[in-house]
Design brief:
Elements lengths: L1 E7 L2 H15 L4 E7 L1 E3 L2 E2 L5 H12 L6 E7 L10 H4 L5 H20 L6 E2 L2 E2 L11 H4 L10 H9 L15 H8 L7 H12 L1 H7 L1 H11 L5
Parallel strand pairs: 1-2, 1-5, 5-6, 5-7
Antiparallel strand pairs: 3-4
Helix pairs in contact: 1-8, 2-4, 9-10
């Protein structure tokens, strides 16, 4: 069993990896292990300053028990200290912006850890985890009985974007803002509902709708033993 460590932005992503991703990869001989960066003494996840991220990735890559390390960070509110951040802002197209960030992050972390380049797979989710839930709005709004009335509004937000991953990063129109505004009784709570909804939607549907996410999973699947 090959161990793949996924360094997550927060608890929602950690639960998503544990409950949704890991079971789907186990039969490939890949053991996906989520972990979070310590952001202050006794606290992990959120407010990811790059100096802490870099130190965590370096230390994890130097562990014998973690042959491959990847990341699951949101592009939304990404710390400006990340390598390539300023250069990425000059890119008008989302794929190019992400490429600049991933290439710079890969080069910086590999140099810091002194590891083989193939042991680190950088991934940054546009624009945040909640984008994945827009892969199937109908299924999303069936997750809780009180959410059925939000289907039309959320479907309109999805239809206005090229893909779920293109729903933009303005505070009032980012994916999570739509969910928090429309999903009531109960109110949408990222940690509580995120992985539950993703599991109901299913990885196949998410990958079909979210090309950046799907390309990341292709990289992980390529790690399976021959």
């Amino acid at each position: 069993m090959k161990r793949v460590c996924i360094v997550c932005e927060g608890q929602t992503e950690e639960t998503f990896v544990r409950d949704v991703l890991a079971p789907a990869f186990y039969d490939l001989g890949l053991n996906l292990i989520p972990e979070m960066v310590e952001t202050s003494p006794g606290h992990k996840g959120g407010a990811l300053k790059y100096d802490r991220v870099k130190r965590h990735l370096r230390n994890t890559l130097r562990q014998y028990s973690a042959p491959v390390v990847t990341t699951l960070f949101d592009l939304y509110r990404l710390d400006g200290g990340f390598p390539g951040f300023e250069a990425s802002l000059t890119q008008a197209e989302l794929p190019k912006r992400l490429d600049v960030l991933k290439q710079a992050l890969h080069a910086d972390v590999v140099a810091e850890a002194g590891c083989q380049p193939g042991r680190f797979i950088p991934y940054i989710q546009p624009y945040e985890f909640e984008a994945l839930l827009f892969s199937d709005v109908q299924t999303l709004t069936q997750t809780q009985l009180g959410w059925h009335g939000a289907t039309a509004a959320l479907a309109a937000a999805r239809a206005a974007a090229e893909s779920p991953e293109h729903i933009n990063d303005r505070p009032e129109t980012k994916p999570a803002a739509h969910l928090e505004r429309e999903l009531k009784n109960p109110s949408y709570r990222k940690r509580m509902h995120g992985s539950i909804a993703a599991k109901k939607i299913g990885l196949a549907k998410i990958e079909a709708e979210c090309a950046f996410f799907a390309a990341w999973l292709v990289q992980i699947r390529a790690l399976k033993q021959p």
